Amino acid sequence: MRDFSYLRAGNIEAARNAAALPGAMLLAGGTTLIDLAKCGVAEPATVIDISHIEGLNAIDVTADRAVIGALAKMSHVADNTEVKSLFPAVSEALWQAASAQLRNMATIGGNLMQRTRCPYFRDPQNFPACNKRAPASGCSAIGGVTRGHAVLGVSEACIATYPGDLAVALVAFDAEVDLGERKLKVEDFFLAPGATAEREHDIRPGEVIMTIEIPGSAAARRSTYVKVRDRQSYEFAAASAAVGLELESDGRTIRDIRVALGGVATKPWRVRAVEDALKGKALDEDTVRKASALAVEGAVDHGANHYKIALAPRVIARAILKLGETA
Amino acid sequence: MNDQVTISPTTLSIHLTINGRNHALDIEPRVTLLDALRERLHLTGTKKGCDQGQCGACTVHVDGERVLACLTLAAQVEGREITTIEGLADADGTLNAVQAAFLEQDAFQCGYCTPGQIMSAVACIREGHAGSDEEIREYMAGNLCRCGAYPNIVAAVRQAAQELRS
Considering only the top CATH level, what class is B97-165? Predict the structure, then answer.
């Protein structure tokens, strides 16, 4: 790991000022930054430690909305009683992510800034070509081993999978990220690679994530996060789905439904085609499976990741049908 | 504190509180808590396994919560209470209930992952995540054991959790 200067920001203004310095990177939990610095991917000139700033870790939840401070730890949000009852998919996405130790370190703001686990991205010594690390250098993954790579939102520049879980639940429920001067939908905060794979987030120098806000809804209250992976725990998703469901008073007609996918796309992937196909329809298995298939229209595989195109709709259907059983 | 920041020198002088004792250290900013513990303070009970946040061998407690020392900068935990495996037993040598249970259940083979397993288990029980074998497996998933002593580790955590509850 290359050495760097270390600054401890005492308050948010100091953090913003320091974040605007050339080569500066913010340090919160460190689970991404220190890891990538060890891999030689991140080479900050200055590390700005924001973890000692007071008052940015509040978790404030009502039926109307959840407001989660950027420095709240993943474990604390996952175990929060109100989050569990009013936003179960958010709690489930969090406790199924990483390990207990990493969840005690990683913050909610840092979680949004988590980088891809693409093995080519993480290995600059052996794979110099990576458009995400070095624009216009090429993509080592295309034509390489692609079992974990994305099938949705890919481009000729990059097929790296967005690895996180929390943000999948956030985009399903229209969460917003507050950057101080600006507030934007989490869905728009993440950028698909297109021709600019190096840009993953709509965040500017000097901006610091302050809070994440999730609007409350009946669908958020009746929600779940289903994660399918190679081992039962402590593993990234092969495919995952955050789903929320609201039924009419007849108990079978779908009034509102939210669906987002993880593990298969280049960013947290809301699938409105599935939602639109199910609104107003009766909740039965055949209808759900047909609608879920719409999630992968336009999907592009690179060989070994072909299975994700079959897997993703099944994970969505499993999540919806599971919610249907819990009246 | 004012809103201005100053660039730190290449060497930081920090104070760490480890197992209740204060230690003064001059370190480069990039030094992890794990390397500070092992190489500078000779507290070698905390193990370096993968050094990448994937194995759990370096698990310590910061302010009572289990974290990975390999992904924590030493400078970042100044002012926090750090507990390592060396700080777990009583001053008279009486073992922590989890340490005793690991011995009784033969919950290791080579022993390399054991300090991390024990630090993780102490926190797991304290968090209330040791209610069933299934829950123990889920919440101990961040600690890998290449010898495959998992059934005995689960038995030790279950035993210690029962003892600490009663």
Answer: mainly alpha
